[in-house]
Amino acid sequence: DFTGGIGSRPRPASAGIAVSQRKVRQISDPIQQILIQLHKIIYITQLPPALHHNLKRRVIERFKKSLFSQQSNPCNLKSEIKKLSQGSPEPIEPNFFTADYHLLHHSSGRNSLSPNNPTGLPSSFDLEQGITYEQMQIVIEEVLEESGYYNFTSNRYHSYPWGTKNHPTKR
132, 130, 129: which is closest to 87 by C-alpha? Predict the structure, then answer.
């Protein structure tokens, strides 16, 4: 720990850096955000079966399957979860929900579903346009609320934001 040179003095090895508490802030860890989002999706898909057909959970299950399909890869997974976390208005892969679209269309009798629809999907769903990442995020958060996810996890993980609701940013 001697830097040598004219006028230099040896510094003790235990010297540290002092940082003002006002300058310290929590950093946003993008990997943690991805893991939180994956945890939410997997939590939903691990729930016991619903008493009645729950289309919200079915749509989330299909989304999860697409994330881990043979055509997917780690880079694609990261990209998809990032779009979901940010609430992107971009539509999710068009062929993704085709079978569910037909079911929804027949059960609703119109393109936009009402909030009181037994399928349980938000009224903002336009079956012809598909579902956006923002809409998927809303569905995920609704299912988490309905299942008591935030009541359960907020008591377990005080130091991690598992129980933090992820609301898409408004554009």
Answer: 132
Q: Would you kindly state where each structural domain of the chain is located, as residue ranges?
A: 59-100+131-149
Q: What angle do CA 168, 48, 109 make, to 5 degrees?
A: 60
Task: Annotate 4-40 with DSSP letters as a single string.
Answer: -STT-----TT------GGG--PPP-HHHHHHHHHHH
Q: Two tokens at 52? A: 């009645």
Two tokens at 142? Answer: 């609704």
Predicted structure pTM score: 0.65
Which phi and psi (to 5°) does residue 91 adopt?
-70, 145
**What is the full per-residue pLDDT of the chain (171 aa) written as tens digits?**
555 556 666 666 667 888 888 888 888 888 999 999 999 999 999 999 888 878 899 999 999 999 998 888 999 999 999 999 999 999 998 665 555 555 554 554 443 333 444 444 555 455 556 789 999 999 999 999 999 998 865 544 444 444 556 655 544
For residue 126, how many other CB atoms are within 10 A of its CB? 14
3-state secondary structure (DSSP) of residue 93: coil
Task: Fill in the DSSP letter of residue 120.
Answer: -
Taking the C-alpha atoms of residue 80 and residue 60, their distance in angstroms, rounded to an integer, is: 13
